[in-house]
Amino acid sequence: MAAPAASQPLISVRSVSKIYRQGRVEVPALVDVSLDVGPGEFVAIMGPSGSGKSTLMNIIGCLDRPTSGRYFLEGREVDRLPDPALAEIRNRKIGFVFQNFNLLPRMSALGNVKLPLLYTRGRRPPKDAPRRALEMMGLQHRLRHSPAELSGGEQQRVAIARALVNDPPILFGDEPTGNLDTRTGVQIMGILQRLNEAGKTIVMVTHEPEIARHARRIVRFRDGRIESDEPVTDRLIVPQEVMEEQQARPD
Questions:
Q1: C-alpha to C-alpha distance for 47 and 148, rounded to whole angstroms
Q2: How confident is the model at residue 13 (pLDDT cuts 50, 70, 90)?
Q3: Which of 20, 27, 100, 195 falls between 20 and 30 A from 243, CA-CA?
Q4: Mean per-residue pLDDT for 174-198?
């Protein structure tokens, strides 16, 4: 049974399909997908390779457009907006956290977190927002360190700080624990749980069932379609002592 949708979805896709063309061959990646995500939800999207989960993430993250169907963000249809408008939405409304961290190697942790501010128009966050974002991640002692001087867990925390610097309402995670050891991955999930408790809407792609159980709802894809959409009944909550261990560990 599908999880009940919020009365005013933050994210809403309606009959969305995506077809990739390889020469004369059409390859359907999404087939007539409809999905709502309400404000404050924490949704894990699962499925085997080629199931369509990453394609959906790219569409709702305004990185790609559907072949057909409609996509509404905060009630506004965005799938037909011009590229500059989509870039502004990504900068203001969405934070991305990737499996490979995507940090610039020649910049410090602080410099990487400042990057989104270079593309921010109009009202800007306070000047100390990058520093505060890193402090929130327990990285006040790593501000001037380059990515090569940081552990995998620290690099992912820098990436989360970068995603938060503009205070977007939505965080998208693309296999955010995929390059981390089990303990560090659990700590990252604890960070995401606390951000969700603070009001962030989180949508995360993962292939790991144990990681998905940290979310509140799991949507499973197969062959470009939604196979199931259910609340998590055996949810894993990261204990506070695990989070405190992350803060205290020198890495």
A1: 32
A2: very high
A3: 100
A4: 93
Task: Tell me the whole-structure pTM to 2 decimals.
Answer: 0.90
Q: Which domains, from first to last, does the chain contain?
A: 11-248 (3.40.50.300)
* pLDDT of 248 above 50: yes
- Strands lying side by side in the sheet with 68-73: 25-37, 11-22, 68-73, 76-77
Q: What does the pLDDT read at residue 249?
A: 55
For 75, counting Cβ atoms within 10 Å of its Cβ (0-12 exposed, 13-18 middle, 19+ buried), the class is exposed
Q: How far is Cα 132 from Cα 241, in angstroms, rounded to an integer?
A: 22
Q: Residue 66 has which token pair?
A: 């559907």
The whole-number average pLDDT for the span 97-116 is 94
Task: Quote the mean pLDDT of the chain.
Answer: 91
Around Cβ 102, how many Cβ atoms within 10 Å? 14
Sign of torsion over alpha carbons 122, 126, 130, 133: negative
pLDDT bin (cut points 50, 70, 90) of residue 122 is low
CB environment 199-227: b (16+ within 10 A), e (fewer): ebbbbbbbeeeebbbbbbbbbbbeebebe
- How far is C-alpha 99 from the chain's CA centre? 10
Token digits for 96?
């991305």
d(CA 47, CA 51): 6
**Residue count (the chain):** 251
CB atoms closer than 10 angstroms to residue 69: 18
**d(Cα 176, Cα 212) in Å, to the nearest integer?**
11
Yes or no: say if 204 and 192 are a contact pair by the CB < 8 Å rule. Answer: yes
